[in-house]
Write a structure and sequence with these properties.
167 residues, mainly alpha
Length: 167
Amino acid sequence: MKKKLKIFVLAAVAILFGTRCEDFLEENPRFGLLESNFFTSDDEALSAVFAAYDPAQFQQGAEWHFRWVYGDIVSDDSIKGGSNVNDLIQWLRLAEFRGTGANTALLSEWTAKYAGIARANFALVNIDGNDQISENLRDLLVAESRFLRAYYYFNLVTLFGGVPINE
């Protein structure tokens, strides 16, 4: 048994030191889109901005909307409702002003808005000043990306107060 273990260890050491890590870790991608080859046409720039719009629709479900949940349930305008006290417990906690970072409703809002900000920033960095995209479309997409970023920050500040800025 010890002899087999020695052979295995020696073989593993020979393999590790016989090849350089760079040989198999630094391969150029053979296919697919990367940041370095993506923003080369108007259609690709449009796709990036469309992706920044997507988190605007991230909600708890079709029946929940940001303003209704956090504007009315967390006030005396409405009650949480549901079939019993344990139904939608995350909303009950908010209605009782006991929302914490573990609250899935708050966490999903935070995550969705920062996903939108990250996507808008990604589009801005790669579209602004890119000569491969037509000038009129480039100006439009930069403006849309800036608006989306501001919209997501507005919703974050409305819900949480001061938030970290990620530009």
